[in-house]
Amino acid sequence: MSSAGPAIDVKARVEPGTVAVLDRLARWDLTSVDTIRVSYGAVAAPPAPPKPQVTRLDEKIPGVDGRPDVTVRWYRPAGSGPGEAGADAAAPLPCLLWLHGGAYIMGNLDENDDRLDRMVIELGCAVVSVDWRLAPENPYPAGLDDAETVWRQIAGDPAAYGVDPARLAVGGASAGAGVAAALCLRLRETGRPQPAFQLLIYPMLDDRELTASIRAIEDPGHWGLWHLRANRLSWEAYLGGLAGDDVPPTAAPARATDLSGLAPAYLCCGDVDAFVDEIVDYAARLSHAGVPTELHVYPGVIHGGFGAIPKTPRTAQLLRDVYAALAAAFTPAG
């Protein structure tokens, strides 16, 4: 796309507590995958220390169909894990398979420790966070293959992992939410059962640069926002040479023309987010396809609000609403 979208008066639009964050983002070097990674590392929060109410455990999930094993991090209420003293084998836990964000080129298991601990404490659930392979070293479909491997192993033997198969959800943030949406598409494509729920927090869904909101960050004057140049580099790295009609919906879910039969969906984003238009469109098309869908768009919120400490009222509301949606999804029917 050659023409930029309408200008965004960022300082007038964002919540005041976000301005300092945008000042830091404005100093990112977005000229290459390597410079983006260095810039990200410079602002990433240190790992959160574990909370006493939560047990964290890193382990390997065996590969399927000749794929490599996948490292995951489990978060469970203390004393509830398989084999732990005091664990109640008769009470399997609801479980969220979580996929971290990072534009398909960044991110790690540490970055959402605090958020996932809170999920466990507030909801009494288990979370399994997937260390999925990143581009460009491992382009599509490597990351999606990793997510599917973990899903199939846990869904295939939930008792071994102490989880309730009827309350097994998938979710993620940004690129991780894109992989979560793609996993639902792949499961449908291969005839496997859908998750109970898909949690898509500001998902990165579309490589085509079609919307006004993604084009609006094309010129350098849009201080502090995720820039179109960085977005393009990230998609090119992830797609690994795929382009145009060769890009399948399981790589860029917004390309899917049929969204029927997918898991109930929850989508959220801010209105100062380059992805807002593609997210709103995807939510509308899910609903039109008969998928139970909930959408939240928060005024003044930028991309990345889930991972940051909630310093503003709207980012705090985003977090509260995410946990509430999961709580509802994990409530047994009847």
From TrEMBL:
- Check the record and name the InterPro entries matching this protein: AB_hydrolase_3, AB_hydrolase_fold, GDXG_lipolytic_enzyme
- Any keyword Hydrolase? yes
Keyword Hydrolase: yes or no?
A: yes
Residue ranges of every copy of the Alpha/beta hydrolase fold-3 domain listed in the record: 96-304
User: Entry's Pfam families?
Assistant: Abhydrolase_3 (PF07859)
Show the GO MF annotations.
Answer: hydrolase activity
Q: Where is the signal peptide?
A: none
Q: Which keywords fit this entry according to its UniProt record? A: Hydrolase
**Which positions are tagged coiled coil?**
none
Per its record, how is this protein called by name? Alpha/beta hydrolase
Species, as recorded: Pseudofrankia asymbiotica
